[in-house]
Amino acid sequence: MATSEEASNSAMTLVGATALAVAAARATETMRDDRLFEDLLAGQFVLAGGDQVLDWLSERTRLLRLGTGDLFALRTRFFDDFLLNATGAGCTQVVILAAGLDTRAYRLPWPADVRVFEIDRSDVFTFKDSVLSTHGAPQDCDRRAVVADLRGQWADSLLDAGFDPHLPTAWLVEGLVMYLPENDCDRLWAQIADLSAADSQLGVEYSTRQMLDTPLTQQSMLAADSDDVLHALADLWLNECELPPGEWLASHGWQAQICEIPELARRFDRPVPAAYDPTVQGHARVELIAATRK
């Protein structure tokens, strides 16, 4: 019979390198004296992740990690603030799509009446909930895990979990759009719009595919083995959206504001990550979008 640790490690092989890489970044940020947030659970995911985390933290990915700099910390803080502002403004439901190892249900100071829905695959929740239960993570909101494939009819599963489309909702689409083909992206925005009451809010991260072509990424890819995590991520990265999410949202009744990484880095007095520095030739772009449904 497998031990709980063996079961967690087995499940972890299916979660994917991206969720663990982001958890490692959150754990690193938590150790800083000038941290932008505190995520004490992130380190537990890193410990449970084992070899997959070590792969991301290996010498082969050093250039890429240097290039991305504080990206994940900046992104996390941006969407933390977005969600707290949205719930403070009356959104009583939060939906985190492709939630991965997100811990906001446990670490943010939610208003008393907020319900948080996390949508992801069953293997993700198997690993995640195993770690959370082992460490007795307390939560200050009604968290509901929704098992669904975002390429399919996930809305039905969300409704079955108790989601009310008549209530203002704060949606979060973080670290997802780049992995979806254009048709799936269009379907995702349409489904969110159909489920969004007036005054709902939507946070979206949109990364240009040029991230794969920056000099730092290319040097890292050359240094990596063909079965390395970087090549796996490159194969998954589609980002075929011909119409950027901000433009799509604006054309479908959302008022969207866009913040890019250099602006966010200056706001929090952090160095602009080299891969996103507009003064560096071949830089990539990441748009962090906050939109309101009217």
Describe this structure in words.
The structure is a single chain. This protein is α/β, with parallel strands linked by helices and about 290 residues long. It has a single domain, classed as Vaccinia Virus protein VP39 (Rossmann fold), CATH 3.40.50. Helices cover about 45% and strands about 15% of the residues. It contains 14 helices and 7 strands. It has a 7-stranded mixed beta sheet with strand order 3-2-1-4-5-7-6, with helices on both faces. Helix 7 links the parallel strand 1 and strand 2. Helix 1 crosses helix 8, helix 2 packs across helix 3 and helix 5 packs antiparallel against helix 11. The longest helix has 18 residues. It is globular, with a radius of gyration of 18 Å.
Set down the secondary structure blueprint.
Layout: H1 4-15, H2 17-30, H3 42-49, H4 51-56, H5 62-68, H6 71-88, E1 93-97, H7 104-107, E2 115-120, H8 122-134, E3 142-147, H9 154-160, E4 169-173, H10 182-194, E5 201-207, H11 215-223, H12 229-236, H13 245-251, E6 254-260, H14 261-267, E7 286-293
Parallel strand pairs: 1-2, 1-4, 2-3, 4-5
Antiparallel strand pairs: 5-7, 6-7
Helix pairs in contact: 1-8, 2-3, 5-11
- Beta-strand percentage? 5-15%
In total, the number of domains comes to 1
Give me the secondary-structure category: alpha/beta
Low-confidence stretches are: 1-15, 220-224
| CATH architectural arrangement | 3-Layer(aba) Sandwich
CATH homologous superfamily caption: Vaccinia Virus protein VP39
**And the CATH topology?**
Rossmann fold
N-to-C order of helices and strands: HHHHHHEHEHEHEHEHHHEHE
Q: What is the CATH domain class?
A: Alpha Beta
Instruction: Tally the beta strands.
Output: 7
Q: What spatial order of strands do you see in the largest sheet? A: 3-2-1-4-5-7-6
Instruction: Categorize the overall geometry.
Output: globular
